[in-house]
Amino acid sequence: MTDVAAIILAAGQSRRMGDQNKLLLPVSGMPMIRHVALQYRAAIAGPIVVVTGYEAARIVSALEDIDVSFAFNPDHEMGQQTSVACGLRACPSAELVLIGLGDQPLLKAGDISSLLRAHVAGDPTKISIPIKGDKRGNPIVIPKALRSRLLEDPDRPGCMRFTRENPDLVQRHALKAHGFYADVDTPDAYQALLARKETAQ
What we know:
This protein has helices spanning 32-43, 56-62, 80-90, 109-121, 144-147, 159-165, 187-200, and strands at 4-10, 26-27, 30-31, 48-52, 69-72, 96-101, 127-132, 135-136, 140-143, 170-174.
């Protein structure tokens, strides 16, 4: 499964973290975004595009020496859907594209690989989303044939609207790994996730 690309969203302002950029908080002795990017790099051989916005220079610096490229989203303050669109426009062509979040410090390379295997074992023409109960996770998998359709509506680009309005083009995979469902929005969430990560080691 070599023809896989990834988009990592790393443009947000971390408003709920106060004066800290959550993507630069330490995880396993390195900035969170670096830890996450390394998991994607270990899982796939194809191109990885990191979408930047807020404090873009610091994000780029944190990813020094990792084989990724960058796409700056000038509209990042308008919401995540603009970063998804920016990433899709910048990402090279591939049979599959992962779209994930930069603030998932519990996500492991093996989790990403398990999602890709589930996608291929199911209906590879559909978008794949990990689920646990009623909780939707990330990353998701976009097949090449559907990629352009996520950009059809310039006012509402991205995945969330498309998957809700086209349930017949979506498959959900029951995957248990906690990393799919745990992102960091607040200082308390960061501390809880660090504690969980230490316990799991």
